[in-house]
Specification:
Elements lengths: L6 H23 L1 H8 L5 H24 L5 H21 L13 H6 L11 E2 L2 E2 H27 L1 H9 L7 H17 L5 H18 L14
Antiparallel strand pairs: 1-2
Helix pairs in contact: 1-2, 1-9, 3-4, 3-9, 6-7, 8-9
């Protein structure tokens, strides 16, 4: 399954695997230091997540540029939306540079954000963090439908394939599907840490980047006159 992967895919997958396992083990060996050093704000995992999300942004922007004269407006629009999703994720991860530039949160975010930061995913709705409802359960449901419903239909029905390709949806390769499932089981199900969300964001950003940059339907995202 892995022998035909490019060097970039192997390196990214190895990076995510090694540090996810390190984080998993560390959380059980010494949870306090795990929280203080490995998944701390502006730490290793957070900045790794930001870097991979920004690479995803670059991939999508480059794709729009290369295909601007070869694909439909819908295709380019959906790819642009995906680029905005990567940009939004990277911005949210570092609270839009708040700590970097030492900017104080407005009164709204101080009162309604679980961490008092200027971002949306930590907003509180009553006693519930928005992150758990939308970015946790919501994305979880979408990922399940994507892996268990859309991908099998894409590979079996030409009508679904044509529809999905028209909307510029990157279809995951088999190893990426396995990576998604293993990550969910290892971190979401088995891991007991209160900081497992950061581990999901870290490894999930790598797998999602691979999904977008090296999809099963890769030919749909390549220029016709590619050199």
């Amino acid at each position: 399954m892995l022998k035909n992967l490019s060097l970039y895919e192997k390196l990214a997958l190895a990076y995510a695997s090694v540090f996810t396992l390190i984080g998993f083990a560390w959380s059980y060996i010494d949870h306090d230091s795990f929280k203080s050093y490995f998944v701390v704000e502006d730490g290793f995992t957070e900045w790794s997540t930001v870097v991979f999300l920004l690479i995803g942004l670059f991939v999508c922007v480059r794709r729009v540029w290369l295909l601007k004269n070869e694909r439909s407006f819908l295709f380019l629009f959906m790819t642009s939306l995906l680029a905005l999703f990567f940009f939004f994720g990277a911005g949210e991860e570092i609270s839009w540079g708040q700590r970097i530039f030492d900017v104080e949160s407005s009164e709204f975010f101080v009162q309604n954000n679980a961490q008092g930061e200027t971002n949306l995913h930590n907003l509180m709705v009553g006693d519930t963090k928005l992150n758990k409802v939308i970015f946790g359960r919501g994305i979880g449901i979408l990922l399940f439908l994507y892996l268990a419903v859309l991908i099998p239909l894409y590979r079996k029905k030409d009508s679904v394939k044509q529809f999905v390709d028209k909307f510029a949806v990157p279809i995951a390769q088999n190893y990426q599907i396995v990576a998604y499932v293993v990550l969910l089981i290892l971190v979401q199900v088995i891991m007991a840490s209160s900081k497992k969300g950061e581990m999901l964001e870290f490894a999930g950003s790598v797998i999602f980047l691979l999904n977008v940059a090296f999809p099963y339907n890769k030919s749909n995202f390549e220029p016709k006159n590619r050199v």
